[in-house]
Design brief:
The complex is a heterodimer of chains A (164) and B (261). With 164 residues, chain A is an all-alpha fold. Chain A is 95% helix and 0% strand. The model of chain B has no long low-confidence stretch (mean pLDDT 84). The chains are: A mainly alpha (164), B mainly alpha (261).
Chain lengths: 164, 261
């Protein structure tokens, strides 16, 4: 077995060259180059996870914005409904008030008109009495030749009018 | 074994100095540039080229960058799963360890023998795996004592140990702890050696049986060859698994040092 047979002659050369070559591998490649390679890989991993986080955050923001939009939408909806309801109520009140005023006006007009009609009909009645009394006196004078007094004619007319 | 024809399944592990550097030495220690050293350098260079392809640092990676990032991410996940977030600081070390061993295992499996070259797997030498294991173990010890001081010894006394059992358990745990570098280094060495020996033995069967007679070549040789195809696939798997096991055990041991238990 050369590993054992040659050991006395070769151990120093083996150890020397191994330390030299492994020293080169460790110091130049291991310490000099590997951290840069690994750094690139780590930077890439960091970038990927950073981008994913940013995307997640953007999603969250979008969700938040949508929720806010929904809230504002609901708020403005209720506000609009309140405005509409208030407008309706105001309009109803205003029209009620106007109606009341108009009713009152109409009532006064009707009252005035009724009073005028009453006055007119009373006046007409009174005139009818006078005319009827004159007519009655005329008729009495023409039929009996007796001059009936104004009061008697009037009373007779009143009685006749009262009886219908 | 050397007598089975002319094919010695252990010859593939022989270390040969290259380029006439046999007597190169520092302070009396021989440091000849051997075929083993050549494969260490090749592993380092292939790994270097591989990682350079991942240095484009684009936000949307190409295939090569994706492959390199997949490997670093794999080691990162391994460390985080075993140690937690504190494990990140061991990424450079465990990545270097895993990729270096993986490339050593895989480069040693390349069928370069077809082109007359002599592939070599330095992870089949315990001098190499031992150094890697001792390195991992030393880091565990340094981190453990650095972070916890003498409290690190509480690692050897699990929670809820009855008082009478503390001393025996301490020694049992100590032994199991001290065995770690050996199990770490020997596991890789044994797995790689066994696989390569098996492949060479079967290859020897194919050649020797074909040389002996056509009938033997067609029966034993064909059967061995089919078996070799399957075992070659298995060896690729073993190459990956052993590198993974080395990295995994290192991170498990680092977890002990980092978090006690």
């Amino acid at each position: 077995m050369p590993q054992i047979a040659q050991i006395a002659d070769t151990y120093s050369s083996q150890i020397f060259w191994l330390l030299l070559t492994f020293g080169f591998v460790f110091f130049v490649i291991g310490l000099g180059m590997v951290p840069k390679v690994q750094g690139t890989a780590d930077a890439r991993d960091a970038k990927i996870s950073g981008d994913l986080d940013a995307a997640k955050a953007a999603f969250a923001r979008a969700d938040e914005a949508e929720a806010g939009y929904r809230v504002r939408d609901a708020e403005s909806r209720t506000a609009a409904q309140a405005v509409v309801a208030k407008a309706k109520a105001d309009a109803a009140k205003a029209s009620e008030a106007k109606l009341a005023v108009a009713d009152a006006e109409v009532a006064t007009l009707i009252g005035a008109a009724e009073a005028r009609i009453k006055a007119a009909s009373e006046a007409a009645m009174a005139e009818i009495e006078t005319v009827a009394a004159d007519a009655a006196r005329d008729m009495v004078a023409r039929i009996s030749g007796v001059e009936a007094s104004d009061d008697a004619a009037r009373n007779a007319v009143k009685a006749a009018l009262a009886h219908g | 074994m050397a007598e089975s024809g002319k094919i010695d399944p252990m010859h593939q592990f022989a270390i040969e100095p290259l380029f006439g550097t046999d007597h190169l030495s520092i302070g009396g220690f021989n440091i000849a540039f051997t075929n083993s050293a050549l494969y260490m350098v090749l592993s380092a260079i292939v790994l270097w080229i591989f990682v350079i392809g991942g240095m484009k640092r684009e936000l949307v990676p190409g295939r090569w960058q994706m492959a390199v990032e997949y490997m670093t991410g794999f080691i990162k996940n391994l460390l985080i799963a075993n140690i937690g977030d504190k494990g990140r600081k061991y990424i450079p070390y465990v990545f270097s360890l895993f990729m270096f061993i993986l490339l050593a295992n895989l480069l040693g499996l390349l069928p370069l023998g077809l082109f007359g070259l002599h592939p070599f797997t330095f992870t089949s030498h315990f001098t190499a795996t031992g150094v890697l294991a001792i390195m991992s173990f030393s880091i565990v010890l340094i981190v453990g004592f650095w972070k916890h001081g003498f409290h690190f010894f509480s690692l050897f006394v699990p929670h809820g140990t009855p008082v009478a059992m503390v001393v025996p358990l301490f020694f049992i745990e100590l032994v199991s702890f001290m065995v770690r570098p050996f199990s770490l280094g020997l596991r890789l060495f044994v797995a790689m050696t066994a696989g390569h020996v098996l492949l060479k033995v079967l290859a020897g069967f194919v050649i020797n049986s074909a040389n002996a007679s056509p009938a033997l070549g067609l029966t034993v040789g064909t059967a061995s060859f089919i078996l070799m195809i399957g075992i070659s696939a298995l060896e690729v798997l073993v190459a990956v698994i052993q590198a993974y096991v080395f990295a995994l055990l290192t991170s498990v041991y680092l977890n002990d040092a980092e978090n006690l238990h």
